Amino acid sequence: METLYADIIINISHEALDRVFQYRVPFSLCEQIRVGQSVRVPFGAGNREQRGYVVRLSDQAEYDPKKIKEILSIEEDSVSAESRMIKLAYWIRENYGSTMIQALKTVLPVQDKMKQKEKKSVRLMLPKEQAPGLLDEYLGRHYAAKARLLAALMDEQTVSWERVTKDLKIPRTTVAGMEQDGIIRVETEMFYRNPGPGGMEAEAALPLNESQEKLIQEFKADYAAGERKTYLLHGVTGSGKTEVYLAAIEEVVRKGKQAIVLIPEIALTYQTVCRFTKRFGDRVSILNSRLSKGEKYDQWLRAKNGDCDIIIGPRSALFVPFPNLGLIIMDEEHEGSYKSEQTPKYHAREVALKKADMEGAAVILGSATPSLESYQKALDGKYRFWTLKDRAKEAVLPDVYIEDLREELKQGNRSMFSRRLYELIGDRLRKKEQVMLFLNRRGYAGFVSCRSCGTVMQCPHCDVSLTYHRDGKLRCHYCGYEEVMPEACPECGSPFIGTFGLGTQKAEAAIRKEFPEARVLRMDMDTTKRKHSHEEILKTFSEGRADILVGTQMIVKGHDFENVTLVGILAADLSLHANDFRAAERTFQLLTQAAGRAGRGEKAGEVVIQTYSPEHYCIVTAAAQDYEEFYRQEIAYRTMLCYPPVWQMLTVLLAGPSEEECKQTAQRMARVIQNSGIRVIGPGEASLAKVNDIYRQVLYVKEKDYKELVKVKDRLELWIDRQELPKDIHITFDFNPMSSY
Ligand SMILES: Nc1ncnc2c1ncn2[C@@H]1O[C@H](COP(=O)(O)OP(=O)(O)OP(=O)(O)O)[C@@H](O)[C@H]1O
Ligand SMILES: [Zn+2]
Ligand SMILES: [Zn+2]
């Protein structure tokens, strides 16, 4: 038998030990040892005994085998929830690039043990019939405080600590004295800080419709057969995906297992949380970024102790340590916010799949507009394909109109509303129905377009739009190509060429001017800074106290507004010409989701998409609600230009206070990659070339195989380790980036 070696992390709370150490597995432990177990090992010069976690096993010694020490013993025979997390952290570190400590901080978000909240109360221990006699005695002796407390306890048996100390004003010494005499007892009960809505009336499940029922039957059959699959649920907006999630969770919980429900923070609204709470009561726990540290810790503890079965939250909810995880659900699986913006830049979908695999759980990915990544896998048969084609209620999908803004300008209409949208808004105001106007600013990064013909200045090499820089030049952020900002449109000669300057504030002002009688609400970054403002605006609107809601992508998620019969998208191009390869996909998603807000009640809905590129496939297919056709065209584009998900891409970002040092280091890194026979794009300036006096340079590597990119990352990490790089240069890796650099 070959010698077995184990990579071990020592004492995870120690920042300085950010690496793994190799140990030999003694023959007697070879059968037993598993990744994730905690072990005792000799460590350091003095061979002090330390606890460590096994993160990898191999049969290769990484240095002189004679110098490799041996593991002393295995601490826990089973792999605990915590050690499973550590194994996951190791995988994250390997696949996304970070230090071990950063990876551990990701998976163990609450590392310091916090004090659990206590509830103190005082209980009467004296037999009830003896109490009146004692009360008389106290009163006779003028023990006023003792008498007050006893009288209160004669009514209630237990009294809360707040009442004892604050309302009854009983001195602590009195309480202590009475406790010593055996008359009362001070009791302490631990409880969890619970941020959920609570006190909801239970609601029974809706009877599933035929299409939903079919999916759930399949899920149950798979589950019973011990098969843990990944399902991609592609269901149009309002098709009842959430009901399917609820039914799947019910099944898993009935089997004594737990479920994690991931929802993008922006869609994690009061309404969503209520739906889950009504179904599962206090077995549900909620995580979100607004919780205090203590609240977060308690949700973590609840899960670990088996005191809840379901956790709902954004991507960090993945790391809640359930003892027996059965299902991970990822709603709106296409959402960019599932990708972490901090190192390690992991994608929650990929981590969810890995975690499910490690723990024997099933995964349901759901969306009306699946990511290309997931759709491709479903087509390849790697995921089970589920579809819901119709809306669950009677409601039908809305009629969609595409309005060509170039044509409007030609006809002398310079306002931000096409004639059709203007007309329909007026119509809805008369009918007392509601309107949502949507201005998509995400990904907007200073592209230049012609207002007469719609031409967008593009890179001749990369098929992405050029970005306007303040030095008057247009640049491509993928290849570094640059040209001078033209004074007239190169296509039609029109002088109306420039950056697109339309904001929600401007839109609101225009609406007020055109429709002075309308009650208008605006929802964007500015109006939602306060803690509950997001909810307040949506509540005002849903209660019919406003006619028009204008906002950014924030308004497209989470709410069912019965009375909204018109949705207008003011400028669909804003996100279409963002300078990254996902621009069309993102635009398609946003348009489909926004259109999905119209006509969710009994009245039919209409949608107006205003655009300068009415023939662009992402707009045409979104208007037709034709995902398949969009996918076909988009995947052809990605294939042709070697973008994800067809190819895999690694972005390396270098940031530092000296432009020269940044550039030089980037060039050196590019050579390291080239020397191993791999093509590099760049270095080039990032689109945000300088932020707060920090310069930014980027490198791109594209490969067919993700593993090859991981090797590139490993090689660079090793190289970085061995160099004396300028201290203040910060290097980050981003695999298959979701945003542009
Ligand atoms: N089987 C059913 N019977 C009756 N109503 C249903 C059923 N399933 C869902 N609904 C209702 O249809 C509406 C849409 O359902 P749900 O929110 O689950 O859809 P969704 O696909 O998650 O929507 P979206 O993608 O827009 O978030 C809800 O009001 C829901 O109560
Ligand atoms: Zn033009
Ligand atoms: Zn280019």
Automatic annotation (TrEMBL):
Stored InterPro entries: DEAD/DEAH_box_helicase_dom, Helicase_ATP-bd, Helicase_C-like, P-loop_NTPase, PriA, PriA_3primeBD, PriA_3primeBD_sf, PriA_C
Q: List the GO terms this entry assigns under cellular component, sorted alphabetically.
A: primosome complex
SMART domains documented for this protein: DEXDc, HELICc
One of the GO biological process terms: DNA replication initiation
Listed binding positions for Zn(2+) 1 are C450, C453, C489, C492
Cofactor dependency: Zn(2+)
Q: Name one Pfam family in it.
A: Zn_ribbon_PriA
Tell me where in this chain the Helicase C-terminal domain is found: 484-651
The Helicase ATP-binding domain is annotated at: 222-388
What UniProt keywords are attached to this protein's entry? ATP-binding, DNA replication, DNA-binding, Helicase, Hydrolase, Isomerase, Metal-binding, Nucleotide-binding, Primosome, Zinc
Under the heading SUPFAM superfamilies, the entry gives: P-loop containing nucleoside triphosphate hydrolases (SSF52540)
Q: Which reaction does it catalyse?
A: Couples ATP hydrolysis with the unwinding of duplex DNA by translocating in the 3'-5' direction; ATP + H2O = ADP + phosphate + H(+)
Cofactor binding note: Binds 2 zinc ions per subunit.
Gene3D superfamilies in the cross-refs: P-loop containing nucleotide triphosphate hydrolases (3.40.50.300), PriA, 3(prime) DNA-binding domain (3.40.1440.60)
A GO molecular-function annotation: 3'-5' DNA helicase activity
Where does the chain bind Zn(2+) 2? C459, C462, C476, C479
Which family does the UniProt entry place this protein in?
Belongs to the helicase family. PriA subfamily.
- Cite the record's note on assembly: Component of the replication restart primosome.
Known role: Initiates the restart of stalled replication forks, which reloads the replicative helicase on sites other than the origin of replication. Recognizes and binds to abandoned replication forks and remodels them to uncover a helicase loading site. Promotes assembly of the primosome at these replication forks.
Q: What is this protein called?
A: Replication restart protein PriA
Name the species this protein comes from. Answer: Anaerostipes caccae (strain DSM 14662 / CCUG 47493 / JCM 13470 / NCIMB 13811 / L1-92)
